[in-house]
Amino acid sequence: MAAAPVQGAQVVARISGLLRLVGRSAEGMPLMRLVRESGLTRPTVHRLLTSLAAEGLLDHDPVTGNWVLGPEVLLMGSVASARFPLEDIARPSLRRLAEATGESAFFSIRRGAQTVCLLREEGSFPVRSFVLHEGVRFPLGVASAGTAILAFLPKSEQEELLGRWDDHAGSFAVNHTPQLVRDNLARTRLAGYSVNPGLVLEGSWGMGAAVFDRSGKPAWALSLTGIEPRFKPARQEELGGLLMAEAHRITQQLGGGGDGGRRRR
């Protein structure tokens, strides 16, 4: 976000950006990090934050000093959830995956060129990966959910992102080179599910399967995450089959026109 005068549509974009940054986690974010990540000046960020707090959209935590989401966001989210009953549809699949595998299961949505984690279900295995939780965003093509979605998007959309990969992937571009991403996408299309071999955080592995909307495009993804020893090649096909079965189930419930992540031959 550029540091030009705040007015009109520009202020809406800035406010939206700050809300997304604060909403990355329940703990919120301190002022100086919001300044750094938004690219705005400190006075501008502080003015917008205090205005949002006055409307109940943000709160300032007096203990941590962080800015956190406010009660009005909860109320609006409750109303919006009636239009998007994803909790009711996806939660049973997450529970089945967590119970069957012992790993943590997640449901993510595509938002533009990113994925956002919406739901989480913890598995029984005592050692877990904490890379992913509700509100975490990754660029498409990064992590297992983003790879599963990007793999089944039209080739033109894939190439548009790959053509500006460094800007798109940001700090993740170091471990996700364009050729590595292309190879991952090809393997995902062949198998029907994606595998992230510790590219986001060493030792933290993940697998994902796309969920399709009514037009047949991947709009969501199921994923499993855990430590590397739990994702050995001998187990990947089993986990991939479970992911694809649940992805297909949700696709059907949502009236989707895709194959729910089944193998494409």
Automatic annotation (TrEMBL):
<feature type="domain" description="IclR-ED">
    <location>
        <begin position="72"/>
        <end position="256"/>
    </location>
</feature>
<dbReference type="Pfam" id="PF09339">
    <property type="entry name" value="HTH_IclR"/>
</dbReference>
<protein>
    <submittedName>
        <fullName>DNA-binding IclR family transcriptional regulator</fullName>
    </submittedName>
</protein>
<dbReference type="InterPro" id="IPR050707">
    <property type="entry name" value="HTH_MetabolicPath_Reg"/>
</dbReference>
<dbReference type="InterPro" id="IPR005471">
    <property type="entry name" value="Tscrpt_reg_IclR_N"/>
</dbReference>
<keyword id="KW-0238">DNA-binding</keyword>
<feature type="domain" description="HTH iclR-type">
    <location>
        <begin position="9"/>
        <end position="71"/>
    </location>
</feature>
<dbReference type="Pfam" id="PF01614">
    <property type="entry name" value="IclR_C"/>
</dbReference>
<dbReference type="GO" id="GO:0003677">
    <property type="term" value="F:DNA binding"/>
</dbReference>
<keyword id="KW-0805">Transcription regulation</keyword>
<dbReference type="InterPro" id="IPR014757">
    <property type="entry name" value="Tscrpt_reg_IclR_C"/>
</dbReference>
<dbReference type="InterPro" id="IPR029016">
    <property type="entry name" value="GAF-like_dom_sf"/>
</dbReference>
<dbReference type="InterPro" id="IPR036388">
    <property type="entry name" value="WH-like_DNA-bd_sf"/>
</dbReference>
<dbReference type="InterPro" id="IPR036390">
    <property type="entry name" value="WH_DNA-bd_sf"/>
</dbReference>
<keyword id="KW-0804">Transcription</keyword>
